[in-house]
Amino acid sequence: MKIIAVIPARYEASRFPAKLMQMLGDKTVITTTYQNVSQTGLFDEVFVATDSEIIFGEIVKNGGKAVMTGQHETGSDRIAEAVQNIDCDIVINVQGDEPFLKLEPLKQLINVFKEDDNQEISLASLKIKLTEKEEIENPNNVKVITDNNGFALYFSRSVVPFHREVSYDISYFKHIGVYAFRKHALLQFSKLEMKPLEISEKIECIRYLEYGMKIKLVETNFIGVGIDTPEDLEKARKLI
C-alpha cells in the first residue's frame, strides 16, 4: 500500500485564529507538526493542505511540501481536494494543531488497514480514555462510543453515554482527531451532503456514520496537547 500523510491547515480557526502560526519554542505550531510527522518515516509523502498563503509560505520556507486548496467546511473536504490526483491507497489526516503526535499511534492506524482483509473499513481513528470529570464534560473534547468490535456508534460534544445507572462503571473516551482513510472513501465523503447531526455537533466524521460507512477506533495511551484554545497553547509550551 502507498501511504501518505496530509495535514489540513486553516489560518482562520474559529476558536483560536492564527493558532497554527503561534510559536512553540523556536518553531511555529504547524512547522512542528509537519516535521514531527515527517520524522516518523512511516509515509511515502507528507504535505500540508491549506487555503492560506501565510501557512503555505511557512511550510515551504522551512523545506516542507504544501499545496493550496480552496476554502472548505471540514479538513476532510480539504484533503480530498488535495489528494484527488495523487496515486495512493491510504491517506492519514494529521491535524495541524496536534504537534506532539508520536509514531506508535500512527502505526496502529496503518495496521488497521493491513489487517482489514475484506476492505470493509472506510476510516480509522484514535480514542483515549478520559478519567477526569472536567475533561469528560468539556465540549471541546469530542466523545466517542463504540461497539464490541471497536466500530464507532456515535461521536458527540455532549457527555455520552449518559450515566443514568450510577452503580454501573462506565468508561468515557475522547476522540483524537487523527484519521486514516481509504482514498476512495475520502473522495466519496467529499461528495456527500452534510446532514443535520454533523451540522449540529460540528464533527465531520459523523457524516460517515450518517451514510452507513464503518469507522474503526483504536484505543491509545498517547497523551499530547491538541491546541484549540490559548490555554492549550500554554500547556504545549510547558511541554516543550
Description:
The mean pLDDT is 91. The protein is 31% helix and 24% strand. The strands form three sheets. The protein has a seven-stranded mixed beta sheet, with helices on both faces. The protein has a two-stranded antiparallel sheet with strand order 2-3. The protein contains nine helices and eleven strands. By secondary structure, it is of the alpha/beta class. A hairpin with a 5-residue loop joins strand 8 and strand 9 (152-156).
Structural class: alpha/beta
Distance between the termini: 34 Å
Query: What's the overall average pLDDT, rounded?
Result: 91
Low-confidence stretches: none
User: Sheet bearing the most strands, described?
Assistant: 7 strands, mixed
- Indicate the proportion of strand residues: 15-25%
The number of strands is 11
Rg over alpha carbons: 17 Å
Helix coverage percent of residues?
Answer: 25-40%
With strands numbered from the N-terminus, the spatial order across the biggest sheet is 5-4-1-6-10-7-11
List SSEs in N-to-C order: EEEHEHEHEHEHEEEHHHEH
Shape: globular
Number of discrete helical segments: 9
Keywords: Lipopolysaccharide biosynthesis, Nucleotidyltransferase, Transferase
InterPro entries: Cytidylyl_trans (IPR003329), KdsB (IPR004528), Nucleotide-diphossugar_trans (IPR029044)
Organism: Chryseobacterium angstadtii
GO molecular function, one term: 3-deoxy-manno-octulosonate cytidylyltransferase activity
